[in-house]
Prior knowledge:
single chain; mainly alpha; two-stranded antiparallel ribbon; globular
Amino acid sequence: MALAVLVLAKLLWGGIGSADTQTLLDRFATWGLLLAGYWLVRGVVRRSSSQDVAAFLVAVAVATTIGSAVFIIHQGLHVPIYNVVEYAVFSFEGQTLSRTYAIISPFFLLPLAVGFARRSWSAGTITMVVVCVLAVAISYTRVFVLSAAGVLAVLVTLRSLKERRLDLLVRRSFTIAVVLATASLGMLFVMPKPTEYFLHRMTSFTRASTATQDQNILVRQSHLGTVRAVTSDRYWLVGAPFGLVDDMSRKVSMWSADSAWVGVMYWTGFAGVALVLGMFVLFGLRALGLFMNYGDSTEFVAAVCFAGIVAMFITSLAGWSFLEPVAHTMGFWLFAFVAGETIRGTELGPGAIRDIGAGVEETAGLGHGSPRPS
């Protein structure tokens, strides 16, 4: 709500004396659609059952896995499928490789979170995880690797905290190690050069950019430092006016692709940075509470959302993340899912739900996973 007030105030402020109405509305649309999407998705989740929400997440994960498999064929095996302009085409040790983001799903890491969040793994779950791991590697994108590692670490830790069973932790860790080793060996034998380039990218995380267009964290830190200095000097509280058109605003539009926080800081100031960071903390804690206190579908949804929030924060440090231009309305969808689950649980109350064997009986057509026994 505070962020919405800030954005609306900036729209009114920017409209006073602004000669470029189109630019003003375009800048406002980024944040307006982001917040409108949050309220819309939250309402949908609130009026759905946890079982429906969990089934929806699985369905999206399956669809994303299929898309990731096609992505692997296109970029890893070099079988042209999509007629898109590649982000980069270059030669690496005698073989022509390419990189593209246009065909990567906005839910790229969701199959990984859905797979790891399950209590038990089936052949389908393992396949989904393996395809996602291969797609992450073939993307050659280091922030995806860090985010995937974060998803893995978070979900293993959550399950260990709740179950408190050493044997379960050992079995799950062993299974994950086998799956990752299988995916790595398969990639090494089927796609040797892409594998070598992927490893090269991982070892050049902080090196200067190269001929293969390896942008790195040092460049992003430099951009963020420049924006922080300008914002501190001129627009420290609520950021630059939405209608502003100058050299720095044009640079921010380009640099936001390398870190969402560049755009957040410049357009909403330190107040906006504090509010967005607060949303990550607040909804992360809410998801954690849902996971620890409920079972069944709610536990699953909360685990996926908590891991997703961690991944979203990591990707925001080196990419568009929640400010992705083609999906503004879905930028805060993870926050919306957590809020919808929380509100539904508050409205129903623990007394409205009781276990029936392995399932859950819902009251008035609304379902919420069964509370964890105290």
